[in-house]
Specification:
The protein has 7 helices and 10 strands. The chain is α+β, with helices and mostly antiparallel strands. It has 2 domains: 14-127, no CATH class; 130-267, no CATH class. The strands form 2 sheets. Strands 3-2-1-9-10 form a 5-stranded antiparallel beta sheet, with no helix packed on it. Strand 2 and strand 3 (158-163) form a beta hairpin. The longest helix is centred in the first third of the chain and has 30 residues, at 42-71. It starts with 13 loop residues before the first helix and ends with a strand.
Length: 269
Amino acid sequence: MSASPFTIPFLDSPYPWVLLAALFAGAAASRLTMRTRGRAHPERARTRKWIWICVYLSLAVAFVLAALFVTGPARIRDVGLLYVGGGAFAVAFVGMRFKKAIGIPVILLALSSVLLLGLFLQSVRAFTGETEIAVVRVISLESGRMKLELQPAGGVPVLLNMEGRYFAPIVKVVIFDDLYVFLGAKSWYRFVGMTSFDENLRQGNTDYRFPQPAGISEGLWRFFENNETRIPGVKTAQIEMDMKRAKEFASYGIRMQNDGGVEIVTRSE
């Protein structure tokens, strides 16, 4: 299966899931340290205490699992999650454990600081993230021709014999407004195929088109292209065709940027 161009804004990020998990974990830890001795009904208070601990821990585990399954295990390795999770845990623990001493305004201020930090880290990830949609390996270069291996993400590799010295992926993209990108949306794409150009940047006659292009359907992309000015949140629908000069035995990654555009980068293998 190829990488999907569809994402769930905001929920696609691990930050809200980890933030919620840390808040409930802090609440559970706070309940755990509360004493039930001296209460009017200690046994009843102890029972309520452990019920709430179980509820909070269950919710914390559920949100951690959601972060793993919705965003993927690789996204959980983000160091910024440690700061957001640790801050949220501390706020929830101290706020619930010492409600009278600290006060609601201080708790809200601390929680707001954690949320702002999470949003800042989310914005950095949103506008610098990328998805590799294919790998191109140069098998050989001959007089005015090149043999390439095209490996789409999750797909079957294809050998291409193309004219020229420059190759260019043909990708149809739908780019969203910055607010949607900030909330976790990524550009939608349809990876159509490959074309090539000679030294004088004249296009060759050996284009390759995928039988089943990865990404959104042609009909959906065409709908966005025809109605981009009438669809809220859509910045543009366009065709990206960046060129790269092929070097023998080199490997290149074709990457979609979160906020639009296609980039071809040299891979070290």
